[in-house]
Amino acid sequence: MRAPAVVRLPALLNALFPDSERVVKIEAETVEDVMNGLEARWPGMRDRLCDTTPAIRRHINVFVEGERARLDIRLEPGADVFILTAISGG
User: Fold this and answer.
1) Which fold has domain 5-85?
2) Of 10, 70, 76, 88, which shows the fewest CB atoms inside 10 Å?
3) 3-state SS class at 12
4) Which residues on neighbouring strands pair with residue 50, listed in sequence order?
């Protein structure tokens, strides 16, 4: 049996989706599968994370095992996936 990816979500998404969890396990082979899994659990979440091209939105960063990732990146079984909101300032 394939080990699900461990997905860590930013606090901002918990504020927008009050029923969401900070850490979830999702069966996924790619980052896009992660996004689809999040959408299945919390409708509307994918639109917050991805644009219509489709790509990860500019202000969102996704890291897989510490490396910045795109939607087409393949996941190893049990991969750690971090979704972060970008921080800017001046």
Assistant:
1) Ubiquitin-like (UB roll) (3.10.20)
2) 88
3) helix
4) 56
